[in-house]
Amino acid sequence: MATTPGESALTELIEAGFRFKASPTTLGYVSFLIATAASRSYGEGVAGVLPCFWVYAHMGKVLVEQAGQMTEDHPYRTWVQTYDSPDFDESTRHAVQILEQELAKAPSEEASRMRAAFEQACVYELHF
Predict the structure, then answer these.
(1) Pick the CATH number of 42-128 from 1.20.910.10, 2.40.50.140, 2.10.10.20, 1.10.3720.10
(2) Which end of the chain is more exposed for a tag (fewer CB within 10 A), N or C?
(3) N- to C-terminal Cα distance for the chain?
């Protein structure tokens, strides 16, 4: 099965990640995301993962702007290129649209929980 360059880069990053132990923040964040997606509404799950999309899309652009094009052996080149890409930008826009659709139809109590999940994920992103 053919993959896009972004998918190949993500696979490479995931495989590399198995060589390292997760930090307490990473473990907390991933546990929060899994618990939210598994035990809360679909909208709350979407709200919980959206900050990851937004922050990574933004940071990819900031890093390219500040660092320019990186050499082939730069340790973060694959990561930066993955998140500073039109494909990832489109994925982020799509995730925002899904959240907006879910928020528009959510009862007020669920909308409050969605905002809380989004805010908690933003705190994890800040400490990530």
Answers:
(1) 1.20.910.10
(2) N
(3) 33
84 CB neighbour count, 10 Å cutoff: 19
pLDDT, tens digit, 9 for 90 and up, residues 62-111: 988 887 778 888 888 888 888 999 999 999 999 999 999 999 999 999 99
Which of 23, 16, 27, 128 shows the shortest CA–CA distance to 75?
16
For residue 4, give the nearest of 88, 63, 79, 70 by alpha carbon: 88
Give pTM, 2 decimals.
0.78
